[in-house]
Design a protein that fits this description.
Blueprint (H helix, E strand, L loop, with lengths): L8 E2 L5 E3 L2 E2 H8 L3 E5 H17 L4 E6 L6 H9 L3 E4 L2 H9 L7 E3 L6 H9 L4 E4 L2 H14 L3 E8 L21 E2 L4 H10 L4 E7 L10 H21 L5 E3 L17 H19 L5 E4 L3 H4 L3 E13 L3 E6 L8 H5 L5 E3 L9 E6 L8 E8 L7 E5 L19 E6 L2 E6 L4 H5 L5
Helix pairs in contact: 2-9, 5-6, 8-9
Bound molecules: ligand LLP.
GO biological process, one term: lysine biosynthetic process via diaminopimelate
InterPro entries: Ala_racemase/Decarboxylase_C (IPR009006), DAP_deCOOHase_LysA (IPR002986), De-COase2_C (IPR022643), De-COase2_CS (IPR022657), De-COase2_N (IPR022644), Orn/DAP/Arg_de-COase (IPR000183), PLP-binding_barrel (IPR029066)
Pathway: Amino-acid biosynthesis; L-lysine biosynthesis via DAP pathway; L-lysine from DL-2,6-diaminopimelate: step 1/1
Length: 433
Amino acid sequence: MPLLFGTAKFNEQEHLTIGGCDTVVLAEKYGTPLFVYDVAHIRERARGFKQTFNSLGVKNKVIYASKAFCCLAMYKLLEEEELGCDVVSGGELYTAIKGGMSPENIEFHGNNKTKEELSYAVDQNVGMIIIDNFYEIDLLSTILKEKGKQQKVMFRITPGVDAETHEYILTGQVDSKFGFDVMSGQATDALEKILADENLLLKGAHCHIGSQIFSAEGFLAAVEKMLLILNDWKKTFGYTVDILNMGGGFGVQYTEADDPLEPEAFVKAIVNGVKGQCELLDYAFPEIWIEPGRSIIAEAGTTIYSIGSQKVIPDVRHYVSVDGGMGDNIRPALYDAVYDGFLANRISTEATQESRIVGKYCESGDVLIKNIELPPMNPEDLFAMTSTGAYGYSMANNYNRNLKPAVVFVENGQDKLAIRRETFEDLIALDCE
Ligand code: LLP
């Protein structure tokens, strides 16, 4: 039996169903490739994080990282679940506001926010701006002075923790483009500068050690380093944070081989770590914020592809082509990410053969799954690639002028289009003759 997430199961017709909806029917209705999101699973994840904090009696904010996947319908869901969101561009901010997010629950991140983006965020009264560098302190300060406004801010610190993950998604180490470095004293200089600025209302410190992290160790190391520096600042400047933001990065399961901690266990570990350090240092226990993206949305997403051409090179390889690829999921090509999948329209008992699932893009690196055991397939078959909900659609592109897929939300037997499929007209909409 393949690995099934959330509400996914097979019905009597041996079709994959998600949220009570038959994916074969969804594929007919919306076409393929199609992203199907299991809304109940998203809600369960969102509530899991919040309820764990609440059960521990800890003041908290769970802030969904929009970059993992966002659209109007997603923001509506976040509002329903009382989650905040983080945005990292004017575009994400615009979508969040249009999607009904209350500005107070939006925080703005990024290592190179432009003047226009910062002004827009200030005008919209976003709840928090996470200052990333010295350039931004000056830029934001100038904007606020011009507008005669004050803004709640945190500042991002790189605590110098090497988490075990892919180099491209590591962010907490010293040699990073993000945040103020502790070792060189830049974080302390930033603190002094921000405290001295009456337009900047400093609420706390932020760190994010990386992404797709399976154990609590890296977070605990970061907690320890953060509290040490915070305690130094308390002694030197008499400054104590109201909020400690530990970022996101909680790992998920893509295949059987992945064994991450449950979201609740990450929260408990962080809370206990902060409590322990605060007691040790006699530091006032702060509000704790986290920014999960992948762990809320990854396993909720499944991509349904149609099978197309196949090429068998005797004694070498069996290629199976699907009607999407690196345009709707660049993660295998970019990070060597490993995914799993199975037929969505029948449960086969035939002997399997080792196959390679490839896309339709003009590039040899357009591989979705390098090696997978699959039964003989034909062009009527549908292939479900699982756990594609994070950084799939959000990193989608139009290479070869292929169309971005549709996205459908399913829950309690109801399907709702969240993003329509692109059209050829969309493709030329920005072109000038
Ligand atoms: N907070 C901050 C400040 C971040 O930089 C990130 C991710 C998150 C939260 C959310 O991390 P998550 O919980 O989703 O792991 N495109 C890559 C992932 C890049 C993550 C960048 N920052 C991928 O496909 O794996």
